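Lecture notes, structural biology module. Today: joint structure prediction for complexes of two components.
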Amino acid sequence: MAIKDLFNELRIEMFKVIILNAFLDAALVFLVSYLILTIFSITPLAPLIIASLFFVGATIWHSRTLTLRYIEERNPEVSEMLRTAADNKDSDTLMAHALFNDVARKMRGISSGSFLQVSRLLTRLSIIFILSLGIITLAFFNVNIQKFENPFLGIAERIGERFGETPETPETADVASVDELGEAHMATLGEEQLDVTIQQSLNAIDFTNVDEAEETDETGLDTFPVDVAAQAGEAYTGGLQDITDRKTAADYSQEIKQ
Amino acid sequence: MADAIKNIEKLKATFTNVTSEIGKKIIGQQEVIEQVLIAILCDANALLESYPGLGKTSLIKAISEVLGLKFTRIQGTPDLMPSDIIGTYVIEEKDGKKIFKFQKGPVFANIVLMDEINRATPKTQAALLESMQEKQVTVGNQTFPLDLPFFVLATQNPIDQEGTYPLPEAQTDRFLLKILVGYPTMDEELEIVDRYTAAKEPTQLSTLLSGDSIRLLQKLTRQVPVANDIRKRAVEIVTKTRKTPDLIEYGASPRASLSLIMAAKAKALIDGRKYVSIKDIEEMAYPVLRHRIILSFQAERDGKTPDDVIKEVMK
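The predicted structure, tokenised, for the full assembly:
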């Protein structure tokens, strides 16, 4: 095998390592940015774009920095041999050819795996695993920055009180600034107040938290009477005070029957 | 090509066999044996420095025997003449005619051991220069090529400097390495005593290489590839010897850079590698540079040796 072919083969092996390293770095960048941007409810497309740009940049950068010296550092037993072969690749002497044979034989035993820094690789994989777990946990507990109280609000209130200003309470807050999902008390059905919690990620409504309805006076005119009963063949006159009215109602009932 | 590459794979085993074969006669001194082999592979010369009685001559003889090379020994003395080394014309009678015939001197061999080179006069020392550098000798107006491979392994004694002629810088620079032969360890010395005082036949060494195979190995040594940054490191070390005036008065020449790279290549080949490592450069810097630098007064006053200074230069 010509030494030039061998060096080309080495370059391909190095490129594989570059791609793997760049991919792992890009995966890290994606996960970190996804983790951060999800908290702020920013579209998942943004981390993907960042990671893609990082991948391209890292590949270009490593292609420039990862030279033959890198292989020498990773394989010190062949470093001088490799360097000598590279410096004398155009030599056509018997000793040079013997050296090229030696280099080719030794390099066959060196896989691209030896170019990888195993500890660094394991660290990156561990970080990727931890970040993935973090993302799953955040999704499960639906952590969102907008659910947290503004930590500066308390400070602002105290400053406002000091200067005689009335602090802005949630009741008096601008309705437009309220989240589109609204306040915690979402709907009122009849006299029963219903607390509805809409979970953004799970799209499920929690109906478990239902408050007991408050006791109200039901004798008012705007409510139905408690006991309403009617008998067949008889006109219902319940609630009519005047006798004339009762008679008119009974006549009307009789007419309908006929 | 495939077969040749397969043979290269066997080089380490070959050098291991050579070393162990030499080890049958020479106990210890592995580093010295390796450095002599490096000098031979680089097609260069080496300067051995040691105290007397450490087996330099035996070592060189054993190496030449195992490598299958012709070996000669010249003893350096003040009255040694250049003609005693390179040879001279003698009158010979042939078919009733008297003719001048060149009588080859001991320099006509593959490995020449010049014992105590610093005892020979500068004129005689200079006579070796041409043979060391050009691998040829000139007598009168005739030039004779030397047998290849050709190496001069010169020795010198660090003590007893009276009546010696220290080698000039120009000449020491022509030696690729300055090899220090140290004392053996206690165990090694016991084994030397045991082996050489026993009533048994001297060990016969096998010839494992030949002149031709060594020339091929020299060719391969030159072909060992070097990475650019390692080459740069070698040159940096050598140039730094010229930029450290507090420790070094005169630094090494660019020839030292060439020598350092070549020595590192040979070291890699002996170790069975097809490329030069930074360790080869740092290891070979000591024998390559120690005779090429002149320490400053300050360094000498502090009791530093050339090796200490080279170590500091390499930091």
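Point to remember: Residues 27 and 191 of chain B are 7 Å apart (CA to CA).
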